[in-house]
Every structure is written in structure tokens, then in C-alpha cells.
Design brief:
The complex is a heterodimer of chains A (about 850) and B (about 110). Chain A contains 35 helices and 16 strands. Chain A is α+β, with helices and mostly antiparallel strands and about 850 residues long. Chain A folds into five domains: about 160 residues, Tetracycline Repressor, domain 2, CATH 1.10.357; about 140 residues, Four Helix Bundle (Hemerythrin (Met), subunit A); about 80 residues; about 170 residues; about 210 residues, no CATH class. An eight-stranded antiparallel beta sheet of chain A has the order 9-10-12-11-15-16-14-13, with helices on both faces. In chain A, helix 8 packs antiparallel against helix 12 and helix 18 packs across helix 25. The longest helix of chain A is centred in the middle third of the chain and has 36 residues. Chain B is of the alpha+beta class and about 110 residues long. The mean pLDDT of chain B is about 95. Chain B has a single domain, classed as 2-Layer Sandwich (Alpha-Beta Plaits), CATH 3.30.70. In chain B, strands 2-3-1-4 form a four-stranded antiparallel beta sheet, with helices on one face. Chain B contains two helices and four strands. The chains are: A alpha+beta (about 850), B alpha+beta (about 110). Chains A and B meet through strand 2, helix 4, strand 3 and helix 6 of A and loops of B.
Chain lengths: ~850, ~110
Amino acid sequence: MADVAAQLRDRRAELTALAPDARPAVGRAWCEAWTDAVDAGLRELHADLELRRGRLALVATGGYGRRELCPGSDVDLLLLHDGVGYEGLELAVRHIVYPLWDAALQVGHAVRDHRQTVSMALDDVEAATALLDARTLAGDPDLLRGARDEAIGKLRRRPDRFLGSLADADRDRRQRVGAAAEVLEPDLKRGAGALRDVQSLRWAAAGLLGEVALDALVPAGYVSAPDRGDLSRAHERILAARVGLHLVAERPTDVLRLDLQQQVAELLGYQDGDGVRSTAADLLLRDLFLAARTVDHVHSRAWSLMTADASRGRRRRRPAEVTVDGFEVVDGVLRLGEHEVTGDQVPTRLLHALVESEAVLDARAAATFQRAAAARDEPYPWDAAARGHFLASLWAGRSALRAFAELDHAGLLVALVPEWEPLRGSPQRNPFHTYSLDRHALHAATGLAELVRNDDWAAAALDEVTDRDALMLGVLLHDVGKAHGEPHSETGVPVARAVVRRLGLGEDSADLVETMVRHHLLLPDAATRRDLSDPGLVAEVAQTIGTREALACLHLLAAADGAATGPSAWSSWKASLVSTLVGKVRAVFDDTPLDDLEDSATNTARSAQELGPDLGIDPAAIRAHLEMLPAHYASAVTPRNVARHALLGLDELVPGEVRTRVTPGDDAEGDVAGYDALDVVALDTPGLFAKVAGVLALHGGSVVGAHAFTRSDGVAVDTFTVRTPEHAVTSWWASVEGDLVEAVAGRLALRARVARKAAKAQRRRTLSLPDVPTTVTCSRDASGQTTVVDVHTEDGVGVLFRIVSALAELELDIVVAKISTVGHEVADAFYVRDAAGNPLDEDHAAELVLAVESALAT
Amino acid sequence: MKLVTAIVKPHKVEEVKDALQEIGVPGLTLSEVRGYGRQRGHTEVYRGAEYQVEFVPKAMLEALVPEAQVDEVVETIMKFARTGQVGDGKVFVTNVDRIVRIRTGEEDEDAI
């Protein structure tokens, strides 16, 4: 027995070694080799087993039964017995299962007789499907045959019940896990379009037809013959990727993580190519997306038909028939009927019909369309009706996503819009994008429709847009340049214009779409990295955008794009910043004088004084406070903020003293929900900002924005907008404020402590995320009063602290800080002045760049 | 000084306790715990679902032991807690920095 355990251990070590000569091809061949090894070991153990009475069969179930043991798969084993008796069973388990445990294999074992096996299968869907895939390894094959036949017979008597359980399990799984066909880190086992979907088809075949085989679905008409072939190929591709993933990750994970993708791709034989988006990982992901889409497509279509048949069998219902624009839809499947397929109108009418009926495309129809599209010399022409159908489909919202997937799968989307081809299945391999390029575009476009239906601000913005066709196309095409190289806001312009022209829209529409493509990042970038209270900035943005209509389009695009990108790309903070900027730009277009600095300052000053009594401070004191500050202060800060600063700075401060106040984001006073405001008042020193950043870094908080002013009496009044860590305890702020007092008094070794924390975080990080190079640039702000320092770098503990410490070393005064983090990239902007209060000269700026680059290089 | 921890089957506790007394281990702490290992908490003749993992009741014994005696204690526990069937448990040894007897203030080895 010790032999078998050692044998299995050795063979596994051989097979999991990553050197190519030591093991079979990564894919089904690997699974077969490992399955053979486990089979051989178990047969040897079974042969050695001496039972006093009865029969015992060793049965492989589940994935093991299918001979698809991946490196991380469990060995699922059933000891099927008849008349063996309890003592014999104990002996059998010790003899057969213990060596597997000793070989450190993950084993799922069960010991059952015929009756228990059948009853388990009828009670538990997972047990039933495990049994469907079972095969006898050793012992009398009649034991399994008998149990399996009886179980299948009973399941077939109520096909709607069994199929219903399978369908429910499928639906839950697919919703929970996300689509392997479009998601950046696909789940290769459980994702929609992944391995489980293939298995569910086999199990459904058993329930309906009595045969656990995909082939059985073809004569029954649920899967077409060509689809059967495509499905096989897709299956093998995904299986190979799963084997590769298990080998590289050295653990039973099924999610193809970003940082493992390149290694897995190379293991599977992919190589880096030239051209845009062609690293080995990109090529692998693209193949996987397309494979998963095939599986998804066949799965949906077959299940529609099978579910209908299963319920019909029971109740003898007539098929549900509906006609949409001349297409027949029977049981959720759209068929051709009497249609002439070569008509130029057909693809867009088909799209529209699919959206209306929420149906999937019949196999024969899809094949016919594919042939017709391939036979054409030229793409389909467009007319007003076609354009109407296409755009109406996008405006239908999220429910149209499946229709577009069906259309794309039949090759018709590319036949309509050839410019779509490079986007198909193209991955976006960075931590903040969720979807492939084509799916991102469709999610953004349909997301726009959802936005204007659900959000008031969006509906209002839509009212300002006359050319709604151009708006929708602009959203659909905003990232089309990514398939052609960076900067994609430039490379996308000619492609987008070509599409607009193709669809038959005029030059004005093309111009609007061009504006959207070229400037789709302008609003989010300006809002998150520039000082919104700077009228020069607002004027620049207004001039670039040009019209109210374009502004509304870009605002809607920013929101739709953000929502379709991923949670770390768009947040309530970002949304509110963009809204603020849009409001100011709109004021420019309306020719309402952008509140003269003085006017808005006066308003703020007045409001602040009115608030005084509420906050326990004399309005005269607020006035005195304001008089010590530049005019710019009152136009950059809210009235409440002014009052808070005045209160904190009321009594004289001594060196090394700091006063703080926290206004929680969910307070009625709070500025933006979910983000707290920290007011800091102290005698100004260049290092003050850095100390705040450092203390927050130590406690896991992050600064998302800050502004800092100095009174003529030398007192700094700063406000930091802070995102507290996710699971912060209620005393979190108290600890932070306490440490801040220590830091300002010089009693905290901030640099050392932050460095220590950063080192620990670095060790825990996952490897090989794409590198973010550090870039530091200086420019003058729009008003010429300060120097704007833009810093792009990789996120990490204490990054802000290091940047700001470098600025402090150069005796720079930070007036405004805009901090934005997307995924693991940081884009910060600092408005600075030198010690004399002027923007930086060239030499000083060069020193600054040197200092910051060096601080970030460690 | 070391802390010897043993997770054993509940019905073996008396035997282990007696055996440890015999070799001069003067004190023990007993906790009732639950756990599982590679075998997922399943007994040998298990007929439930393969994918389920269960906690099984176990007993945890802890004893402070001078370094010189550790090997003897571990061997004794192994001998008397073993049934040969899955779920017998584990013994592990950790370092102890300091021990104090509360009543008298004796420290370290004198406190064992």
C-alpha cells in the first residue's frame, strides 16, 4: 500500500513539473495521463483487497469519471458495494482510500450500496450529475450499470423537474460568477460560457434522452452538427487553459487571474506578437473569449429548446409562437420562416427582432446568415431604416446585450460594421477594466440607455442633445482606437468617422462623434486632476468642448464609460467632481459670467458669517479670519468649511501644535457622501501636508483631495478629503488625530514607520501586474499663478507621503492637491508655489522632477 | 520550555491522561474543540455527498513541558491516542517564553 501512495506522489510530481519535456501537452492529454496514473493505482489497490463476502466496485465519479482530472481536481470516488458488511467496508476504505490521503491527493469519497446511490441521486442534483459521469474502475461493472440505469430512468420520468433543477443551478452560477466570454479574469470552470456549461448540456441530454453525451443532442435537434464541432473545439481550448492555470498557480483555482495570464499563455505555446494588444496573454484571452462565446451561444440555444420540450412533454402544451417583423420565434428561438436571407435589410431587422423577442438565434438560421455574409464582396449597406433599427436596439438598454452577442456570433455585426472586427474578443489586461473591448463598448452604449432612463441628471442632459444618433454612436465608438494603438483618443477618430459615414449620417454628426472620441477623457481627467475653482481651467475646457450639446454628450459618455469599466474607475467622488465641472462649463456656454472670483467669494463670506452662531463662533471672528486670507480662498472652499477653519484657528497657536476636526461624509454637513473631511489648522511649515499624508498612510486611509491656504498670521488652514479604510473601527479617527498631534510635534518617526509598512505590503503583493512607469511633469496653471506638478506612478502604501515630502524638501507651498487612483495607477496633481509665493522657474522645476522621481524610485 | 498541544479523539482522552500522569506530567488543560483534516471530517464508511466538509468533535490537550521531556511526552501521546483510523489527530510543539505560577510567583521551569 505504501508503494501505491509513493507511486502516485512521484507520478504527480513528474506531471506537474513545468519543464516541457517532463510532461504531456497541456490540455486533455495531461488529464488523460494523470487519470491513467490514478486509475492504475486504484486498480492495483483493488486487486490486493480481499473481501470475505459480497462485491465491491471502485467507481470514478464527476470530473474523474469523465477522465478530465486537472492538476487541481479532486479525485471523486464511489465505493459501490453489495453485501460486503460493515467490517469489510472499513477494511476496504483503509485499504483503498488511505493511500490516496497519504499521497496528499484531494479525495472525495463515498461508500454506498445500490439503494443509497439511487436515492442520493434523486435527492441531490450534484450527486445525480456526479453519477451521470461515473465509470467503473475495478470490480463488477453491473453494480454501477444497475444503479445508474435506475437513477436515469427515474430522472427521465420527470424531465421538467430534473431539467428545472439543472437550469436553476446554471442560472445561479452564471449570475454569480460572470461571463467567461467577456470578463478580464474569467472563471474557467463556472463562468458563463465555460466548462460547467458544457457539462450541463450533457446532463440535460441524460434527463431528456437517457444518454449522457453531447452527440445525442444533435439528432434530437437541440444542437446543430456544425455547432457540435465548434463546441468540441471550444471545450478543448478552455480545458487546456484550465490545466495550464492549475499548473502555474499550483493550487485548485479556476479564475484566470491577471498576474498569471502571461505565464499560462506561454505554457500553452502562445508567443508575443508584434502589433497592438498581441502579447501571449492577449492572444490567449482573445481565444478564450471567442471559445466561451461559442459555448455560451450553443448552451443558450440548446437550453431554450430543451426547457420547452421538457415542460411540453409534461403538460402537452402547444409551442409558444410569436412573429416579429416576419421572423418566427418559437419557444424563445428565432427562425427564418419564409424569409429571403440575401436582402440587405435583413441583419438590422434581425437584430431588432432579437431585441424585441429576447430570443436566441436558431442554428440553421445562423448558419444561413453566416454563409450569406461570407458570400458578399462588400459589407451590408445602410439606409435610414437599418440605422433606425440598429440605434433603437442600443437604446433598448441592457436587454439588448444578448441580441448583439447573437448577431456577432452569426458574423453579422462585422458584416454590417467591418470596423468592429479588431475589437472582437480583444482583451484589456489591466486591473481596472472589467470587459473585453467589444463588450465594453456594448455595455457602455446600452448603459447609456439605462442611465437616461433611471437618473434625473442624465435625462436632463439628454434634453440638451439634439443629435441623439451621434450621441449613441459616440458612446459606442469612444474606445475604438484602442485596437489601433495609443493614444486611442487620436487613433480612434478616423475609424469612428468612417463608421458614422458608413451608417449614412452627415458631417455634423461625424463632427460630434469626433469630439466625443477625441475628448472622452477630458472631463474625468480635468475634474480629478485640476483645480475646479480655477476659472482659467474652466475656460480652457469650455473652449475645447465648444457647445452645450457636446458638453452634455461628454458628460453622459463619462458616466456610461465609467460604469462599463469597473468599480475602481468610477466612484461617487469622481461623479460629483465631473458634475461640478460640467456645471461650471455650462455657465460659460450660457454666457452667465462665471461667478467673478470676487462675487463667489463674497457670497461664501456672507454665508460663512451667517453660519457662525450655529457652529459657536462670532461672525466677526469669521470676518477677521477671511481678511487674513487671499481672495482665492473663499471661492475654493464652502461656507461651512470657512466657518470650521475660523473656529479652529481662533485662539493663538504655538509651534508644534495642531488642531483637527473631522466631518464625516454621511453627516448632513459632509461634502461628498462616503468621504470624510479632515480640517487641519497649525502654524504653517512646508512639511505639514506630508505629515498628514504620512499619518493617514500609516492608518490605511487615503487622501483623495486637499486644499491648503495660509493666513497672513502664518497659520495654515487645510482640508483633506479622506477615504477611510473599509473596516475602520469607530475609534479610527481618534487614533489618526492623536498620531497627527505627535507627528506635528516631531515625536513620530513617520518616514521610518511608513517605509516599514510599505515594505510589508510589498511582500504581500501578487506578482507581475503590468508595470506603471513613473512620470513627473511641470506646467503652468491656466491663470499663471502656480505650477502644476502632474505625477503618474504605481500605487502603494505611502506614495503620497513620499511625493509630498519631496515637495516639502524644496520648500514648496502646496495650494491644491488632486489625487486620483484607478486600479493600481496613481495620477496626482499638485498646484505649488515657491517660498516667495511664485510659480517655479525652469531650474527649480527640474529639481522638483528629480526629487519626486527619486522619491518614487525606491 | 515548550507547550505540547495534542488534538485527539474524545474517547482517547482518559487513556492519554493516565499515561501522561505515569511519566510525570503534572498538569494538563483540556478543551473541547471541533476540526477536520485532509479527510474532510468524514468517517471511513461515509455515504454522504463527496463535496461536503464537516467539523468533527475533538479534544484538545495542552501541557507545559520542560524541553528535555518533550520527546517522551510526544511519543506517549502518540502511542495512547492512536486508533489507526482516520481522524486520530495531531501533536505539535511550540516554544514558550515565560511561565509564572500565580499563587507563588515561581517562574519558568519551577512553575511547571
